[in-house]
Design goal:
By secondary structure, the chain is of the alpha/beta class. It has 14 helices and 16 strands. About 35% of the residues lie in helices and about 20% in strands.
Length: about 350
């Protein structure tokens, strides 16, 4: 698809068969960006597309300050240019704003190649949480980064409206999906914990706002499934909570299904894939009424979650929800549709005179 200046319409380009995605977030990282890119790549390949992912695993890297699990590419420009030239993409997509994203942007600008970007994470809010850099400064830089592209993809309508209000141009709707083969209401982990069990699943990091969950006075037990740089500090500060560590595959699915309520305390996620995974596992969701949860849960024809600025009340309300309604709602989110929308948003990497 191509953006037509002066309009909000996209023109189809069905001949885009060789697609190159450049991303600073890639395996062995475990997060929503990696899951999204990996899954839509598989979907597009099933459609007959040739898809190449260029991630940090192809470069010399250093650990990200304060988050050593994430590796950042060192001086990737020359090698990245060779990789792009060798692949000869019909469409170039820059998924992240890190060193690889910056190098790909510079390459595209230098070669006068059109490209798309995506707003996967609230980088400004994450940076402020770690360094206190003011939001307006980082958002100005983000407008510069994404403004060079032919469209920036976002996962929700509320985020699209927010970024447009912040001065971003050509903001394109995208969505997400859930692996319905991987997540089921059964079998359930038999947690040896007092009921009800209020669970969080995901990265254990400051931007996930886990203290807001762990500070809640709730009956039963609080369960945290996942790992990250904040885990040791939280285990020390909340000895009554149960920290189960990272789970994968069938163990992760059973961990979800074995809880009673999924509590999502983040206020900075742009979507929240874990919300869909919880619903697919038959688990009602409690969250703040913010971008992501409000877009997913606010559209439900039947209650599958509770949104409230009082997260404790949301958790208690979610406990009363019929969990049999959750799985059918999750089934409306298809990765195939997500991949097709991604393809629709791409632009041809035309070289301009």
């Amino acid at each position: 698809m191509l953006y037509q200046p002066g309009s909000d319409k996209l023109l189809a380009f069905p001949g885009l068969s060789r697609i190159l995605i450049v991303t600073d977030a890639w395996t062995p990282q475990v997060n929503g960006v990696v899951r999204t890119l990996r899954t839509i790549t598989q979907e597009m390949q099933a459609m007959g597309k040739i898809v190449e992912i260029v991630g940090p695993d192809r470069f010399r890297t250093v650990p990200m300050p304060s988050y050593p699990e994430i590796r950042l590419a060192i001086l990737p420009d020359r090698k990245l240019a060779k990789l792009i030239d060798a692949f000869k993409p019909d469409a170039l997509h820059i998924a992240t704003e890190g060193p690889l994203g910056l190098a790909a942007r510079a390459y595209a600008r230098r070669r006068k190649i059109a490209f798309t970007t995506a707003f996967h994470t609230r980088f400004a809010e994450y940076l402020q949480a770690r360094t206190k850099i003011p939001l307006p400064l980082t958002y100005a830089w983000l407008r510069w980064f994404h403004g060079a592209g032919s469209g920036v993809m976002v996962a929700t309508q509320s985020l699209r409206e927010e970024l447009t209000a912040r001065g971003f141009k050509n903001v394109r709707a995208w969505s997400r999906g859930v692996d319905l083969d991987a997540f089921h209401p059964e079998p359930r982990e038999n947690w040896d914990l007092p009921r009800p069990i209020f669970a969080y699943v995901g990265r254990v990091a400051v931007e996930k706002n886990l203290r807001a969950f762990l500070d809640l006075k709730l009956p039963g037990s609080k369960l945290v499934v996942g790992d990250g740089p904040q885990r040791k500090a939280l285990e020390r500060d909340y000895p009554d909570a149960h920290f189960a560590g990272a789970r994968f595959g069938a163990d992760l699915a059973a961990a979800y299904a074995g809880a009673d309520v999924f509590v999502f305390p983040s206020k900075t996620d742009t979507f929240g894939l874990v919300v869909l995974e919880a619903l697919a596992s038959g688990l009602p969701v409690a969250a703040y009424p913010v971008t992501g949860p409000v877009d997913i849960l606010g559209e439900a024809p039947a209650p599958v979650g509770a949104l409230n600025e009082d997260l404790r009340q949301a958790a208690l309300d979610a406990l009363t929800i019929d969990r049999t309604a959750c799985r059918p709602y999750a089934e409306t989110y298809s990765w195939t549709a997500c991949a097709q929308r991604f393809l629709d948003n791409l632009v041809p990497a035309l070289r301009h005179a």
